[in-house]
Amino acid sequence: MIALKTLDVRNNFKQIGDLINSGETILISRPHNQNLIVISEAEYRELEKLRRNAEYLAKLERSIQQFKEGKVVVKTMDELLEMEK
């Protein structure tokens, strides 16, 4: 990770963009600990995918736990078809 100050980013934006696209993570120091992390779009999308997968797995775990506790609703096929209308 490369740490920079806000002024450095403004003055060297193209070079910083090239670093980010080559896989570097940039930390931009700001006053009052309001720092920023800049990553490539590809890395961001991968992190979002991982986050969504983790959320989905947590939902599955909750569902499995509910099933084990007997917290299920049983419907016949006719009831399901009726709900579809």
What are the SSEs and their pairings?
Blueprint: E1 2-5, H1 6-11, H2 13-21, E2 26-29, E3 36-38, H3 41-68, H4 77-84
Question: What does the model show?
Answer:
The protein is of the alpha+beta class and about 80 residues long. About 60% of the residues lie in helices and about 15% in strands. A 3-stranded mixed beta sheet has the order 1-2-3. The longest helix is centred in the middle third of the chain and has 28 residues, at about 40-70.
**Percentage of β-strand residues:** 5-15%
Structural class: alpha+beta
Total beta strand runs: 3
Mean pLDDT: 91
What is the general shape?
Answer: elongated
Q: Tell me the series of helices and strands, N- to C-terminal.
A: EHHEEHH
**How many DSSP helices?**
4
Give the radius of gyration.
Answer: 23 Å
Question: Biggest sheet, in brief?
Answer: 3 strands, mixed
Straight-line distance between termini: 55 Å
Low-confidence stretches: none
Can you give me a brief rundown of this structure?
The protein is α+β, with helices and mostly antiparallel strands and 85 residues long. Helices cover 60% and strands 13% of the residues. The chain is built from four helices and three strands.
